[in-house]
Amino acid sequence: KLILLDSLLQEMQTVMWRRRMLLGIVAIIFTMQVYNSSKKNWLKFNTKTVNIVSDGFAETKEPFCKLLPERIYGISFHLCTTDVWIEYLIKNEAPLDEHSVKLMQSSLGNYPRSVFLDIGSNMGIFSLAAAKRGHHVVAVDLVPQSIAVLHKNAVLNNIEDRITLINNAISDDHEIYHPALDWPGNDMATRAVAEKDKNTGKWQPLPERKQYSKRLAVDGNTSVKSVTLMDVLSTIQEATVIIKIDIEGFECKALDEYLLLPNKPKYIPYMYVEFEWIQKALARNSDCPQYRTFLQGFFDSGYEAYTPNRTSYEDLTKYAYLNVFWKHKTAKDVPYLEMLQLSSEIPF
Question: Going by fewer Cβ within 10 Å, which terminus of the chain is more open, N or C?
Fold first, then answer.
């Protein structure tokens, strides 16, 4: 009787173990089927997805391309664009952001192993110049077509292995955004409009651009997820990052979190930041209402402002500047910045 009872117990344990194994296998198969059949839906819940693009680029109209001579940026490279305004400048070899690009080149020269983070890269003038110097570049843009043109530029210049392309909006949230134009034909003027705002009429053309367009043209067919600067920095292994950011008024949303951190995850010796739109009343009421706090964040983080001469907090609250070059107090001096301070050619 004892032997029979022992045999029954062993058989029951075996049956229970088999059932558990079977349930486990079924659960795994079900999970894999759900994931594989709706991968895009699963990604929607992965709110911090940084969309690194390496293939499947968006279709664009045929770009205009030209080999730019060394005399413009100090380095020669092929440049393609679908922007009609930039095409006009390229055809006439007119310098576009000449001093700004040279300033960033001089900055990168101080830190040969640094990564160049180009936020609002468009067709990639800054990115291409940095990659041609041998730096690894992370280029971020809201517009899929801009990422496609930058990829074409990278391939033409044989530097595609040095440029990581990211198709995201950069903000302080993880939401869906749409590209929008208030200057038809000028793709460099693309702004980001949140999904929740696209049909509200909240966003209007900037006052300076109303002569070109009566309304903001929102591309509702193109949806791009926003990520934060911290999300992007987490994809970069190197310790030193140099930033250029030009995202039509979203600079506050992009940089605020980093500036307020007491312990920074990366050493950023220089940041070249477009200030044209965040200083305007329209932006201060929407994209950058905390403008003074934003400014103080730079100074509290140890940065000095240059335009190109040393610029105080008070001046930044009183006067308008197109761009501000932020140099950390521990960073090396930038030779080209010193040259600009002695020159009448001021890019700011």
Answer: N
- For residues 123 and 258, give the distance between their C-alpha atoms in angstroms, rounded to a whole number: 26
Q: Give the strands of the sheet with 303-306, arranged side by side.
A: 52-53, 163-167, 136-141, 115-119, 241-245, 270-274, 323-328, 303-306, 310-311
Cβ-proximal residues to 199 (8 Å cutoff; 6+ apart), any chain: none
Quote the distance between the C-alpha of residue 29 and its chain's center: 38
Reply yes or no on whether the pLDDT at 139 is more than 80: yes
Q: List pLDDT tens digits, range 162-196.
A: 999 999 999 999 999 888 876 665 555 677 777 77
Distances in Å between the alpha carbon of 268 and those of 52, 102, 344?
22, 18, 28
Lowest mean pLDDT among 13-22, 59-68, 108-117: 13-22
Please tell me whether the peptide bond between 308 and the residue prior to it is cis, using omega within 30 degrees of 0.
yes
Q: How many CB atoms lie within 10 A of CB 7?
A: 10
Say how far apart CA 7 and CA 83 lie, in whole Å: 81
Contact criterion met (CB below 8 Å) for 132 and 104 = no
Of 61, 60, 68, 63, the closest CA to residue 87 belongs to: 63
Q: Which position has the token pair 């997820």?
A: 225
- Parallel, antiparallel, or unpaired for β 270-274 and 169-170? unpaired
pLDDT at residue 35, as a whole number: 38
State whether residue 119 is helix, strand or coil.
strand
- Picking from 222, 78, 91, the residue whose alpha carbon sits closest to that of residue 156 is 78
Nearest 5°: phi and psi at 269? -70, -30
CB 185 within 8 Å of CB 128: no
Half-sphere exposure of 292 (CA within 13 A, CB side): 3
Residues in the chain: 348
